[in-house]
Amino acid sequence: MAVLQAAARFVVAVLVVAYTLLDELLFPLFRPAIRWLSDLRLFQRLGALIGRLPPYVALVLLAVPFVIIEPAKVGALWVIATGHVVEGVVLLLIAQVASLLICERIFHAGYEPLMRIGWFRAVLGWLFGIRDWALAIARETAAWKAAVGMARGVRDWVRGLVGSLR
User: Fold this and answer.
1) Per residue in 52-95, pLDDT tens?
2) How far lies 88's CA from each of 19, 64, 142, 154, 155, in Å?
3) Which of 3, 12, 75, 96 has the fewest CB atoms within 10 Å, counting from its CB?
């Protein structure tokens, strides 16, 4: 049983490290675009409108793109596992960017109405608890520390590259 638990912890740690590494690399790159979009009057109005929606309407608005985008990430992992690494990585990047630009923005804009749904708030708390537990395990590993160092190096390299193009 201890071996099975250790294997499960290892798999969880690897998945969390990989996902967090991807998030750490992409989010800073898209932060200026997200900020720019957020400053546009159209998106400010959309955000305000979403924030005023009834809770279950906001949930449906969030669920529709989520149900399309999140399975695409799993599909991308399957494509990678079947030997089509480049195609899978491209699909994963596209799905992650879409998630950042669509799902995350809808979630933040509709946070207030969504938190009025008791079961949604409870499930979200439970999921955040699992995420925090998995991250705590992952952060203790050498793989995490190496991945964080690599992510910082890549991010600094990209920033230097973008800065030199200006």
Assistant:
1) 999 999 999 999 999 999 899 889 888 988 889 899 888 988 88
2) 14, 23, 26, 20, 22
3) 3
- Please report where in the chains the tokens 């969390």 appear, as a residue: 16
Residue 53: which region, alpha, beta or left (left: phi > 0; alpha: psi -120 to 50)?
beta
Lowest mean pLDDT among 3-17, 42-56, 119-133: 3-17
CA distances from 74 to 3, 98, 111, 133 (A): 26, 14, 25, 22
Query: How far is residue 47's CA from residue 113's CA, in Å, rounded to a whole number?
Result: 12
Q: Where are the domains of the chain?
A: 1-26+117-166, 40-116
More confident residue, 126 or 32: 126
